[in-house]
Fold:
Amino acid sequence: MFINHTFKATVKWEIKEGESTQNPRTFSRNHEVLIDNKAIPLQVSAAKTFRGDDSLYNPEDLLLSALTSCHMMSYLYVCAQNNIEVLSYTDNAEADLEVEASGSGSFKTVRLKPVVTIKDESQKDLAKSLHIKANQLCFIANSCNFPIVHNATIVVK
Structure:
């Protein structure tokens, strides 16, 4: 049995005075993303490489953050199922985007590099292995068509 959930987002952009979409080098890429039932809209732009505002989030940032966040939540879930007490979790994830001369592109690899601190030394190997199960459960990872590599470090405190 499947349970379907619908998520909604609204994107708002408008041309600024003096700009024109006839010249793709001159118009602003800044826009607002409103997520259904969320009070604070996201201020988004293109990546600096693509003529965006580097101080704002970009779609590539948001994809990578969705992956690492979803993986962490899936990982904490499987740790709880296995009675592993996680004290902290930090991930410095990286994503490789390949852009063709035509302007088309895609992510080729994402590397998740979580550093997980657990309480019990005897659970260290299990804690490391659970990243595989977490990846299998992660909704975002299951929606991607590129490899997601896990280079986890488990620390005991």
